[in-house]
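Much of what follows relies on a compact textual record of a protein's fold. A record is reproduced here so that you can trace the correspondence yourselves:

. . .
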Amino acid sequence: MSCTDKFPPHLRELVKSSKYVHVATCSRDCVPTVSLMNYIYVPADKTYENNKDENAYIVFATLTNTEKYRNICANPKVSLLFHDWITAKSLSVRKHSLSQSPTPDQPEPSEHPSKLLNLLQELNQAELFQMSANLRGQATVIDPNNGESKYYKDLLLKVNPDAHVFIQGDNTVLVKVQIESAKVSDAENNTSVYN
């Protein structure tokens, strides 16, 4: 049984539907780093070649010249943070700001060249959440020359078409994370653990 099969519906929905995940990795020398990533959630029945005995995975792409990639190769234990922004469902990456007018010390909003930057600024202004989930797991770099890599890359591009520049690069590899546990906290500081 996959660890995610034990998740309550609201946690499973958060993992399935979030746009981004924060991926924390650590070097062999215990130097941490965190990256904001596009990803896909792949349930056990949708894994490569439909291996129904496998666990569910979080899959993301990374460049081979990054600290994140080097960390995963040296230490495959990772932590994934999913945050449920209650305003995220109504945000548009094309909006300038959440507020109708700027504050006196705030300049007029301007269009940002990065949709991701625009979204992050809106989320930071909102600072509202219902729950956050910290999932831990084992990361595996997928051989870019096999069918599994193509299968997951196609899924990743289908779900994240605006992230093709991060997914289709020459030195890009895919990483799949087998989820081993989750710790969930809500706005009232209630915490639940799932193994």
Remarks:
- The first helix runs from residue 9 to 17.
